Amino acid sequence: MHHYILVPKNTSMNNKRTKIWIGSAFLFALPLLFYRLPIIEIIGEDTSFFIKEEQFVLGWIHSIEKEEWFEHYERYHEKIILTETRFKTFGAGTPYQGIETTTKDGFITMELQMEHEELNLTISKSVQTTLFFDDRQIPLYDYFDQYESVIIKSSKIPIWTYIRGEFL
Q: How far apart are CA 81 and CA 168, in angstroms?
């Protein structure tokens, strides 16, 4: 009686291919570990959220004039650029260095190019602090406590944080 041992052909070749495939996959995945994606981060005292969009409008009701105020921002590298502001009456805090100023539908609109490292806000239901996008709006006063200090800034986050992050 003969006993046979089955040995796969080209075992060393299969091992070599497997090692090459694993090595190639690792080399491909390695840059992903260091790749960071740009986002806008909204940081509260106890929680933070991410925004994928490159631009947003920050709106609120002015506490003194009781009129709507809208500021259009764009993320540009590590900065947030105020490109336009719309309001109904001049008062404290009104920008004065506008590129162009127009009036339409009761609003004064100023084109601007003001760079900010970050925006510092105090959230309030009474002024209805809200973020507006093309397809939706996010009332920040529903996500943060009354009078909570919030920072909005441009950030870059690792891809795994982007995948599992909390986006608004």
A: 20
Domain boundaries, the chain: 37-164
DSSP 12: H
Query: Residue 5 is encoded by which pair of tokens?
Result: 């041992």
Total number of residues shown for the chain:
168
For residues 132 and 72, what is the distance between their CA atoms, to the nearest angstrom? 9
Q: 61: which 2 tokens?
A: 């009701």
From 129, 110, 133, 109, select the one nearest 120 (Cα to Cα). Answer: 129
Q: What is the pLDDT of residue 41?
A: 93
- Using 50, 70 and 90 to split pLDDT, how confident is the model at 117? very high
**pTM of structure:** 0.77
Q: Give the CB-side neighbour count of residue 104, counting CA atoms within 13 A.
A: 6
Residue 50 · residue 75 · CB < 8 Å: no
CA separation, residue 4 to residues 1, 7, 11 (Å): 10, 9, 17
